[in-house]
Design a protein that fits this description.
The protein is mainly alpha-helical. 59% of the residues lie in helices and 8% in strands.
Length: 226
């Protein structure tokens, strides 16, 4: 396993150089939960039977967030669907992933107030520019989309996650749009993915679409009432 998890890499891609989240809290949380499931699936620790997620063993992988998620899934008697686990794992995930990146020195935490009133927390890199590990992740992804042929599974998973949360337009902005649309879809649906991995990708997309629809509907109703 690389030094950074898929959740770490997704979090870095989700923040701009000023340390501001470009996705919003809801999308980031669901995306990171999907990243945990993808990481466990790639490690061969999850399977899907009758659309229900099952843990394969409970031996730790040595990464606290992954080990906790695996233990929760292994101890669950209800055999939930992947999308149920995405919702259950997402709540405090952004803070915990960001805490880890701050603790390892990849990011720093800055707290201030907007207009001297509204509290704000930003997560820029110590240098104020894109962290080197984020640059490497971005380069892997761009190379995969810019060329044809097989893609290494972790890179394919990260490309799929970027598509699921809507980061593909940001990450691949320098490539032709038609190329990005075709190649990202091709990678996301490729044969590199196990059943559990495919379900994690599809369910991350489904949860995000449902959440976005709910927020949009609520906003329309509120506007109409007011």
């Amino acid at each position: 396993m690389s030094d950074l998890t898929l959740a770490d890499e997704l979090a870095l891609l989700s923040y701009d150089d000023e340390g501001v989240n470009q996705l919003g809290a809801l999308h980031l949380g669901y995306g990171l939960a999907g990243a945990l499931l993808l990481e466990l699936a790639l490690a061969g620790r999850l399977s899907v039977t009758d659309d229900r997620l099952t843990a394969i063993g409970a031996d730790p992988l040595g990464v606290p967030l992954l080990d906790e998620a695996l233990a929760r899934i292994a101890a669950d008697d209800e055999r939930r669907r992947p999308k149920d686990w995405i919702s259950r794992l997402a709540s405090d995930l952004p803070d915990r992933v960001l805490d880890g990146l701050v603790g390892s020195g990849v990011l720093r935490r800055e707290s201030d107030r907007v207009l001297w009133v509204f509290p704000r927390t930003r997560y820029p890199s110590p240098s104020g520019t894109e962290p080197a590990v984020e640059t490497l992740a971005r380069q892997r992804m761009v190379a995969a989309v810019a060329t044809d042929g097989p893609v290494e599974p972790r890179t394919a998973a990260l490309v799929s996650l970027a598509r699921a949360v809507g980061l593909d337009r940001k990450v691949f902005h320098e490539l032709p749009k038609d190329r990005v649309k075709r190649r990202v879809a091709e990678i996301s649906e490729g044969s590199w993915a196990s059943d559990a991995t495919t379900r994690a990708i599809l369910d991350t997309q489904a949860v995000l679409i449902a959440a976005t629809t709910a927020v949009t509907t609520a906003a329309i109703v509120t506007t109409a009432v007011s």
